[in-house]
Amino acid sequence: MTDQSAAGPTTNFNYLKTGAGKTERKALCICCSYPGTQLALPGCVRDQAAMVDMLPKQGYDVTFLTDGDNYHEKPTKANIVREMKKLCAWLSEKEGRQGWISYSGHGAQVPDDEIQNSPCRIK
């Protein structure tokens, strides 16, 4: 809903009630920066470091997977899948919990090959 006044437009918000107490929040930040390769993405480390700095200030407990340092677990497929499953299970345990997933890294488009993806080939 927008209000027009002499000072300009204003917006009125209806906030959702979260109930009594503090909302439980968890975040998963994934950084695939490929250091030391021709595909290196140093900006990914900075982006996710900013997220890891900001999210706790918003009440999130953060899990950080990165190949940008030697202090955190690496963002391997196994680690990413494990942490996503843990986050989803945690979210499902109790109503009202909030989750956040952030990814920085390369993306790729995979061609649609109808023959290889045919359900008939799955045994």
From TrEMBL:
Pfam families per record: Peptidase_C14
Gene Ontology cellular-component annotations: cytoplasm
Domain Peptidase C14 caspase: 25-115
InterPro entries on file: Caspase-like_dom_sf (IPR029030), Metacaspase (IPR050452), Pept_C14_caspase (IPR011600)
Gene3D superfamilies the record matches: 3.40.50.12660
Coiled-coil positions: none
GO biological process, one term: proteolysis
Tree of life domain: Eukaryota
GO molecular function: cysteine-type endopeptidase activity
Family to which the UniProt record says this protein belongs: Belongs to the peptidase C14B family.
Identification of the protein by name: Peptidase C14 caspase domain-containing protein
Species for this entry: Emiliania huxleyi (strain CCMP1516)
